[in-house]
Amino acid sequence: MVTINENYGKLRGNYLFSEIARRVAAYGQAHPEQRIIRLGIGDVTQPLAPAVIDALNRAVAEMGTAEGFRGYGPEQGYEFLREAIVKEDYGKRGCDVSADEIFISDGAKCDVGNIQEIFGQDNLVAVCDPVYPVYVDTSVMAGRTGDFNLRTGSYDKLVYMPCTEENGFVPALPDRTPDLIYLCFPNNPTGAAITKDALQEWVDYANRNGSVILYDAAYEAYIAREEIPHSIYECSGARTCAIEMRSFSKNAGFTGLRLGFTVVPKELVRGGVSLRDLWARRHGTKYNGAPYIVQRAGEAVYSKEGKAQLKEQISVYQENARVIREGLLDAGYTVYGGIDAPYIWLKTPAGTTSWQFFDQLLERVQVVGTPGEGFGAHGEGYFRLTAFGTPENTKEALERIRKL
Q: Which of 285, 278, 287 is nearest to 212 (CA)?
């Protein structure tokens, strides 16, 4: 008899972004005359850069010839892309990363959850709170969280690391020692960044305790301050304790193309076993790589033309973040983030829950954001806005919000 993975029954009833979509669709059906501005989901809005389009076209043309056609690609991804990442990204930041430690995939979101498959069932997982829901939900699906406690608003077996105004939304080292530690900087949803010294403390902590840091650096392209690290491998000792996930979705607009990668250093060993070798086996067995043409597009991101064009695109989103941040501050809101990240984290008005604020924005001014409660217990009372809109929509949304 077929049985079901009972851990799925432990997931909370409504996935955050599905619930947002449901409410927006219902409002749109009831009020078709209203123009809704969406600043809720972190999807990009600018078209692909010319250098990327040129690379895609060349790759498609190659695939139409006998000599240029390619079938299944290398399990780790094409060497041309992995070498470009090493040379133009990690190498220029002084990070010791080699091409055979890079695993190309169809996006960081998949790797964030799939990476758990190489670890034992009894590993204790730590997450920031608030946090991107995928870290928690995939841990639930893997059976590492226990049941959801309605009284505390948390899972019994997860280690929650509060990110609050008091600690600048950068968590303190946990009291209980976790085996797996999810960190995301620049952070989604709070927009907080971490200094190199503070990140070094986490690396030292993990090495002392034998923990492994799962580091999500999807938003590193939005870092504006020089003192903020772009990679955990800028820290001494990170190669023996950290796995890093990256995405082309936010730095190059590949949300529709799907491309990302994970770095697993050869020195990262637990229980006498190389985690790089385990991930290579998993990656090869359940290959979730990107097509050749998409990997050629990824290579173009690191070209001279691609870098210049994407820097210009990112600056548009950075300006959007500045407009939202400064406009909300001027309107009297308490606001965080928006400097080294494309997310703005604002306090909801006194006495207003994050979902109530969501409904107010949707029903009164037709602006969609993301309720902080959906990111965890410490997200209640806050609200996320994304800078990934068009400049015109961003400015209009801000003017609408100021009218509340």
A: 278
